[in-house]
Amino acid sequence: MKSGICPKCGSSEVYSGADIPPFTKMGSNWANSIPVTLWNYAALDNYVCVDCGYVESYVADPVKRAAIARKWPRVGEVGEIAAPVAAGSGSCPACGNAVKKGWRACPYCGQPLV
Ligand SMILES: [Zn+2]
Ligand SMILES: [Zn+2]
Predict the structure, then answer these.
(1) What's the 95 CA to ligand 2 centre distance in angstroms?
(2) Are residues 26 and 65 in the same domain?
(3) Is the pTM of this model over 0.70?
(4) Which bound ligand lies closest to the C-alpha atom of 52?
(5) Distance 98 CA to ligand 2 centre (A)
(6) Which of the ligands is closest to the CA of residue 111?
(7) Are the CB atoms for 18 and 48 separated by under 8 Å?
(8) DSSP 2-18
(9) Is residue 54 in a domain?
(10) Residue 1 lies in a domain
(11) Residue 103: is its pLDDT beyond 70?
C-alpha cells in the first residue's frame, strides 16, 4: 500500500494521510490512534484506496512501535501461519500461497512440497 498500489483491487488511486500533523490525526477523541497502554496512544498514518475504500494504517512513531514491542504479546505460531510470508516459510510453487517449512503438501492446491 505504501508503494501506491492497493493490495485489494490493484488500483493506483491510493492517498496518504501521513503528512497530517500528529495532533490533528489524533482527533478530538483520539479516534485515529491505537492504545499502546492505558494512557499511551500511538497516532496512525492512514493509506486509503479511493477506488475500493480499503484502508491501511501504520504507526509512524518508532518510539511508539518500540513501546508496543515491549508491552504487547508477540503473535505466536498461529499468527505466523496466517501471515503471508513468515520466517521459516515460503510460498507454494504451484499456487503461490504461503506454506511452512516441513509441510509435505500445499494445503491449498495439494502440490507436494519437498
Ligand atoms: Zn482498492
Ligand atoms: Zn499450492
Answers:
(1) 4
(2) yes
(3) no
(4) 1
(5) 8
(6) 2
(7) no
(8) TTS--TTT--S-EEE-T
(9) yes
(10) no
(11) yes
